[in-house]
Sigma-54-dependent Fis family transcriptional regulator (Pseudoalteromonas xiamenensis), 472 residues
Amino acid sequence: MTATILIIDDKPDVRLSARFLLSNYGYQIEEADSPAIGLARLAQKSVDLVLLDMNFALDTTSGAEGLYFLDKLAAFNESNGTCIAAIAMTAWANTELIVQALHKGASDFIEKPWDNKRLVQIIDNTTKVSKLKRSNLALEQQLQDAQDEVWLNSQSPVMQAFLSQLERVAKTQANVLLIGENGTGKSSFAQYLHQQSSSHGAFVSVNMAAITETLFESEMFGHVKGAFTGADKARIGRFELAREGTLFLDEVAATPISQQAKLLRVLESGEFEKVGSSHTMTAKPRIVSASNEAFETLIKQGVFRQDLFFRLNTVTLKVPALRERREDIPMLAKQFLAKHGQTHGVPKKQLSSDAERYLSAQNFAGNLRELSQLMERLVILTSDIHVTPDMIAQVQNPNSAAAPLCKSAHAELPLMTIDEAEQQLLKLALTNTNGNTENAATILGLSKSAIYRRLEKYQIVAKDFQQKAGIL
């Protein structure tokens, strides 16, 4: 995505010169002739970087107006969760002012009149650093969300025992295989393992069921420009991204058997080559995998390599199903109610004691995901603050999720092949879930790996339905 630069300078010729130069390098340009106007632009436009003159007509030498803007920019970034960088410009070789500007958050500085090549280089470096900071902010937010997630709270012995194991394993660098039913929170536990480890790298997640066999090597190991048709630029693979961090292989059992040897090689040696390159690279991230499949059966069937399985499961942890930790259900339900109430701007609802007992008696085949969705429907569809068993039963109707697919249940169906019917159902489910693949899988009674296989088979792209819904 092209970066947007806000140029703040009271001299039109300076702004014009910078606009012409930076536009030629593909940057989008916004302008302001004062710090006050610049602050107003920040509230109106999405900006990646500010090119800030430190001296204005009101005070041409002290830099007070520029320093004032940097203070306001820091406050803006903090309150909005943004990482807008600033490069200070000054026509005065004032070392003290430069030090003050850097102290107040300026990323770099340049003297006027500037050298074009140096200005472009500084801006290029600063935008790259800002992009990394934004990624780190997003990661920190994910980790904070993980800390706050309800799955870390438990009163049940089985869950407390699991969390104790998780805590102990997290501090090591051992590869971990998380097994358990869909919806038990395996991906969240993978993030928690990374968060609690001594790793200094990134947490990189990849859904193995969503990678097509033809793009497997490109996704996992990367490719160089021109490696194949459509490779118009180089791509960094997941192993390289997670070089010093954690690589989470979700739905790892869905890895094509033809690609498992390549995955095994990297896990054993840490070596790989990008597609189209003969240069051997190294990366040895910690591997955390997750699956709800029975590997013993898959190995017997010849669809999963036993040696790869042994590489993945240095430690195997089974995530308890929700029905195995019924003591936690009322607490989890309350926290989901609070979370979804805040998201949708609805007053906090209260569970009656009867409602707590009703929920604790449910099996919740969809585990945490099902409980979360049930509480969200309660938040959206009911107006009473006090939740009763009757209210839960009303929104819990198992047919309600599938209702959009059954509006014409009594109409005569046209004769078609099974494949044609399957394609129609997939598209209808994606339409009703605005392209959410996991929700579509739930409606159709499929696992995540099963729906991804079918989407690949029929070349159906979930993002197309998200775009129609205005999500992308």
